[in-house]
Amino acid sequence: MKETVFLRRARTVRPVVLLLLLMTIVVMVACGGEPEVEITPEPTAQVVESPTEPPAPTEPPAPAETETPEGPQAVGSLEEVRNAVVQIVAEGSFVDPQVGLRLNTAGSGSGFIIDPSGIAVTNNHVVTGAALLRVHVTGEDRPRNARILGVSECSDLAVIDIDGDGFPYLDWHEGNVNVGLDVYAAGFPLGDPEFTLTRGIVSKARASGETNWASVDNVIEHDATINAGNSGGPLISAEGKVVGVNYAGASSTNQYFAIGRDEALRVIDQLRSEQDVTSIGINGTAVADSEQGIYGIWVSSVDSGSPADRTGIEGGDIITMLEGLVLSTDGTMSSYCDILRSNRPDDVLSVEVLRFETQQVLEGQINGDELVVTVDFSTALQDEVAENDPADSSTGAAGYESYATVTDDTGALLVEVPTAWADIDGAEWYLDDGTYLGPSITAAPSLNGFWSNWTTPGVFFAAITDVDAGTAPSEYLDPRVEAFSGPCEYAGRSDYSDSLYSGQYDYFTNCGGEGVVYVALAVTPLDGSNFFIIVEVQVVTQADLEALDHVLNSFILFN
Description:
Layout: E1 26-29, E2 35-38, E3 85-96, E4 100-113, E5 119-122, H1 124-127, E6 132-136, E7 144-152, E8 157-162, E9 182-187, E10 196-210, E11 215-222, E12 234-236, E13 242-250, E14 255-260, H2 261-272, E15 282-289, E16 294-302, H3 307-311, E17 317-322, E18 325-326, H4 334-341, E19 349-355, E20 360-366, E21 372-373, H5 377-380, E22 403-407, E23 413-418, E24 423-425, E25 429-430, E26 436-438, E27 440-444, H6 447-452, E28 458-464, H7 474-484, E29 489-497, E30 501-511, E31 516-525, E32 532-539, H8 542-552, E33 556-557
Antiparallel strand pairs: 1-2, 3-4, 3-6, 4-5, 5-8, 6-7, 7-8, 9-10, 9-12, 10-11, 11-14, 12-13, 13-14, 15-16, 16-17, 17-18, 17-19, 19-20, 20-21, 22-23, 23-33, 24-27, 25-26, 27-28, 28-32, 29-30, 30-31, 31-32
């Protein structure tokens, strides 16, 4: 759940060897020792007859075979399950989206041993990004260290190797997992070192496994209570066999979920051979904040040496786009995991990251180029914007309080703007002669003010859907230079590129003599689609520079 051993006694058989030697045998067994045999012959009577030959001595029986003590065994009953279930304490530094950086933090979860050599299964979110793992084995006073063999972010599974060997272990349930099957959740909830077992039944054999930290096609729904700390522990049958791996729950509705045996086994074999599966090396959670206009995967921690680490992704980053696709628009890991499953582990994937602390947008490649900061207009143009605070701006130098993601009437365009820019027009774009150009959206504190004066900030975002291949951005920008050179000072043209688009932008300063900056961007999609995209932003205050960055880092055309 994200909230984040009686030792088998080896049987020894002590053989009691019965020896028949001559006529009388007296056996005395000393406590705790081997059998002691004392031979006491009875006295022989005198007879007149000729002595008879003594009987031939009886051959002593062959010694009975001694059974060799058995080695570690698979757990064979519900009572013995605790012997193979472990508590895992992961220590490291993590970045919490609400608390921020948490140094030297210890979180606990559960796991279970599947091999006497110490191979154990748990959840990815329990161990990934931790600096060290301490594993508490039942019956032992001191924890053991363990290392991670492999992880799967999307299946929320991990396999670890516990120091030592000779451990009792759990076998997998072999029958069907049907509704009504009696099941038990084993583990160490709420960080309590005392082993806990709760009882329930399977209430749904194939439930949806899409969550904000994993993406599993089908999971088992049950009502055996689990809490934080049960994550990674086994869901077991009445015979002590593993039915699934607990990973999520909703106590308010008495619904709890486990990654099913079949799903888990498909992944575990690869993980124990030290291969990661659908993973770039992060401990992440999907975020979807429509008010702030933020969608993506929040990174709590990064596994050192992983593809994410080599790219430059850090704890506290939000992965907003992967391969040009905006992530987590539905609040789950589904789109992120679908992309990973559609590519090989060593494929190069374009990635865009929002470094939340600094609000910088970075672009790079998984298994390729490291992250670099994209165009930062709020810094580059800071000296060009006057210390204005007109009424229509709805803000001061401190910045806008919140942002929202808005779309045009067709749903083809998406862009992030300050919530103060609440006057929005998403109508399609036509020329005065009725010629249709494409979708468009305009947002400002006042649309009338945006179109009629230089004291109202705002954005115009549109697409021309029918253009000739090879149309250059200059064909749109050149007429704007001529139109704006009167009221503004032309500051020049620069190249523009991001993970989706490339083109050019012009910017103008001191528009209307008011110290206003106007930016006009013209780009085309990198995939060769037949579209021409226009973005124009009027920057009145220092706060609007921040809004400009939000616009240019979020605009997207869904074609």
